[in-house]
Amino acid sequence: MTYQWFPLIWVTPERFVTLKTFSKLIDALDHQVAMRGDGDAVVAWDRDAGQWKRATWQQLADQVQDRSQQFEGQSAIVVPSDHSYQQIVDVLAVMRSGGCEISVDGRLAPQVQQDLIARAMRAPIEPDVALVLFTSGTTGTPKGVMLTDANLVGNAAAKLQAVPQRPWESSPRCPSGSGSAGNSVGAGGDVRLTMLPISHAYARTCDLGTWLLSGCTWAVTMGYEGLRHLAPIVRPTLVNTVPATAYRILDEGLEPLGLDRLRLLGCGGAAISVDAFQQFGQLGVTVIQGYGLTETGPVICSATPDNARPGMVGDFVDGWEHQIRGGELFVRGPHVMKGYCGDAAATALKIDSQGWLRTGDLVQHDQASGQLRILGRSDDVIVMDNGRKISPSWIERDVQRIAGVRNALLVWRGALELWIDWDPQASGAAADPNDPVRAVLQQYPEAKRASIHRFNPPLSRDDGELTAKGTHCRQRVLQNRLGHGG
């Protein structure tokens, strides 16, 4: 088996330092034990003890070694996703055993989870595949993405090079129970808090992967309520999230949430507004936006702490070649997936014979800054009867910032229509959404005359209209609600 070797790089106050190379992420665990075995590795919920658990690198490695023996000889292992300490041990133990982890979002309906697992377990998995993650299903049926050790190490190292983080020096005091308080991390060490699903590529690489490579302290929870419970205990310096949560953080304030030490806020999934970007900056927090796909490990582009700009997702991280064809981005490099699990035909449609992966995204490369701006999905472009084209994603995202609007969908059915999924009980929601929605549409000349409609009943995850993240599955909504496929 041939491995690619990637440098582990992080920053000190003086300079970047190359420390070591790894062929697998699990090798980084051994390195951290050797470098800082008594240092705090992770704080997470112990589902057996019913309280927050802190483990040092040595303690974690010992438990991973013991657990890995139960996975020996298994080629594919399903790890339940509940963001507990036990899940972290299991994920690392599968790596240690040399098996392939099948990871499915625990928020999906049980039958959907079972179907995805069954599909992955039936498919042949090549020996160098370390992980199968499923796409969110935003653009169609979720597909199992096969990622190799080289994908996982290389992409995490590339992200870490763009956004360095500091290894453990001292750590939060472990709470004796869920209500206990802890003191802060000492000077120099980063605490990374994860509130996104590690069954998705964003958190898997940008949280778990960079944690292992850097040796910082990792605090693991799930969702906004999880953030509210754990952040005051560990007082994180690094958090990755999505725009909707970033806006809630601004509304509630950094200090009340235990985010008074926050220095970097990673924001993915969609663009954060210019206003929010600037507000975080005024609070001393740099917003790091990036871009990628599950099929690319996921990171294609990332801003850095030095070049972060609103509306931009940074430059290409190390390892990528790129082409922009008719406005659509194609990439090639060592971070591209092995393929779709059990679906050679879909793989061939996604990756051509020369290794170029079609992202499906329309982009604009800013020559002055070298950064990329994401314009929307190429297959979502609306062509009106006058020949003009609209990319609906920016309009939909702005509408979804209105309190009470859970989802927005812009479509053409002989005329331009905006459909919204409306929650009148949401905090701050207006009595009638039409006025704030119309105000947003007025900012877009091509959409200002769109008619406004509401989904009734609301969009449903069980009917496949929403992903586990809560974003709409465009084609499924069009088929279910509006009677056509696009």
UniProtKB/TrEMBL annotation:
Enzyme class: ligase
Coiled-coil segments: none
Highest taxon in the source lineage: Bacteria
Gene3D superfamilies: N-terminal domain of ligase-like
Annotated spans, Disordered: 164-183
InterPro entries, per database record: AMP-binding_CS (IPR020845), AMP-dep_synth/lig_dom (IPR000873), ANL_N_sf (IPR042099), ATP-dep_AMP-bd_enzyme (IPR050237)
PROSITE patterns per the UniProt record, alphabetical: AMP_BINDING
GO molecular function: long-chain fatty acid-CoA ligase activity
Domain AMP-dependent synthetase/ligase: 126-340
Name of this chain's protein: Long-chain-fatty-acid--CoA ligase
Encoding gene (name): lcfB_1
